[in-house]
Inverse folding.
């Protein structure tokens, strides 16, 4: 089968490459000439473990190619995927579908023979029908179907998620399109992966509902962490026991600085807007959005408290600026909220991230970018772990402490324990498990 993948961002590039691994003939199409030139030269524009090797393998096998010519890319395809961005609109937060609709118009002009047009982009309910209307308007004689096939790829584990998914969701109405989609995912049938067929509207909502629920779970445990600090409880114990209940599960019950990334922030916002538009307000999700925004700002306050209430003239070391480990994605990363607040209060910032410094440098200014965690620590008044990269889990704390101006460690990911840190003389601040001292706040000021 021949597949056209319109859009070579995170979803399009990973999905196209994995379909090629399934044995399909895939053309990844993008208007960005520099991006296509880099891909043709074997340069991957995003960091995703294992993707560079898989792209190289499929290009050499002749199953994966890249083009800026949508006409050449779409011609003769059995299925054309729309995998373009759907960022939130600035005025109302609703998903911006202009790139999706433009792709639909261009696909309509290039289709040859029966074609299944697949929405892979995350889009609000009703988008598949609107895409079908746009294509029909442009090509009244077109022989096509439109279906919804949302992605559920985790950055940092995307290849495995595509090859071994929990489920594949396909929103389709015609048997003809169903047969094409079934053939595309046939390799997963052999592994007995559940392939769930439903209506386009249900498929579109499944994606948003899934992400909103996970974001809610994160926000819930973050609020429980606040309660634990006040009550003298340990949020990790609470979360571990909760997760043992198979009705709840242990995933996404890790207290921290709030969610970020390319999906949860925009998808929760878009679902809220869709609910308002259709007269079915998503009150829980709206609250999650508000609480998460407040959460990220509150992390800056915690750092200030750890410094004795004032960071003016202080050097603050930041470890991790990506929104999660194993990615260079900084979209809606807590670090992008925390760092500017600290700078506004007079702090100087030194930071290190294994992969995301180049991307973060486009968003942040006046940051000293360092070669590793130890350079960040040199002369710092406080060291803050924002992203839980594995290399931050086994730092030489003795060496770190000796190079710092004062030994203050703020661990926003709870990757250390008190008994590991305190012997090295650190004042240690974590999330939801602060040691209570009689008569003093859990967030103790240090002189």
């Amino acid at each position: 089968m021949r597949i056209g993948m319109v859009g070579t961002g995170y979803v399009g590039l990973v999905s196209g490459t994995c379909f090629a691994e399934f044995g399909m003939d895939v053309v990844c199409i993008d208007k960005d000439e520099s991006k296509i030139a880099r891909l043709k030269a074997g340069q991957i524009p995003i960091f995703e473990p294992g993707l560079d090797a898989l792209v190289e393998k499929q290009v050499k096998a002749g199953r994966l190619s890249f083009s800026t010519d949508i006409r050449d890319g779409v011609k003769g395809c059995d299925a054309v995927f729309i995998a373009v961005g759907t960022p939130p609109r600035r005025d109302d937060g609703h998903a911006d579908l202009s790139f999706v609709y433009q792709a639909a118009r261009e696909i309509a002009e290039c289709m040859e023979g029966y074609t299944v047009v697949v929405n892979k982009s995350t889009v609000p309910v009703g988008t598949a029908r609107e895409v079908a209307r746009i294509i029909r308007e442009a090509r009244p004689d077109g022989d096509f179907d439109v279906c919804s096939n949302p992605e559920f790829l985790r950055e940092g584990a995307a290849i495995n998620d595509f090859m071994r998914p929990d489920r594949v969701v396909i929103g389709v109405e015609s048997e003809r399109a169903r047969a094409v989609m079934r053939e595309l995912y046939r390799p997963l049938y052999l592994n007995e992966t559940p392939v769930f067929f439903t209506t386009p509207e249900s498929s579109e909502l499944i994606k948003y509902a899934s992400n909103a629920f996970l974001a809610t779970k994160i926000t819930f445990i973050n609020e429980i962490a606040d309660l634990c600090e006040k009550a003298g409880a340990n949020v990790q114990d609470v979360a571990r026991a909760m997760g043992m209940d198979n009705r709840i599960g242990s995933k996404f019950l890790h207290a921290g600085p709030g969610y970020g990334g390319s999906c949860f922030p925009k998808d929760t916002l878009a679902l809220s807007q869709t609910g308002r538009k259709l007269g079915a307000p998503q009150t829980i999700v709206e609250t999650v959005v508000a609480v998460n925004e407040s959460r990220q700002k509150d992390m800056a306050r915690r750092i200030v408290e750890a410094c004795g209430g004032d960071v003016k003239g202080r050097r603050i070391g930041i470890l991790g600026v990506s929104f999660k480990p194993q990615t260079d994605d900084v979209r809606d990363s807590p670090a992008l909220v925390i760092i500017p607040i600290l700078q506004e209060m007079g702090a100087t910032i030194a930071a290190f991230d294994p992969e995301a410094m180049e991307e973060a440098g486009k968003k942040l200014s006046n940051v000293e970018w360092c070669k590793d965690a130890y350079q960040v620590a040199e002369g710092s008044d406080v060291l803050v772990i924002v992203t839980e990269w594995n290399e931050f889990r086994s730092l030489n704390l003795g060496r770190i402490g000796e190079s710092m101006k004062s030994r203050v460690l703020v661990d926003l990911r709870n990757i250390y324990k008190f008994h590991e840190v305190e012997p090295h003389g650190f004042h240690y601040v974590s999330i939801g498990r602060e040691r209570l001292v009689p008569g003093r706040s859990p967030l103790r000021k240090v002189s």
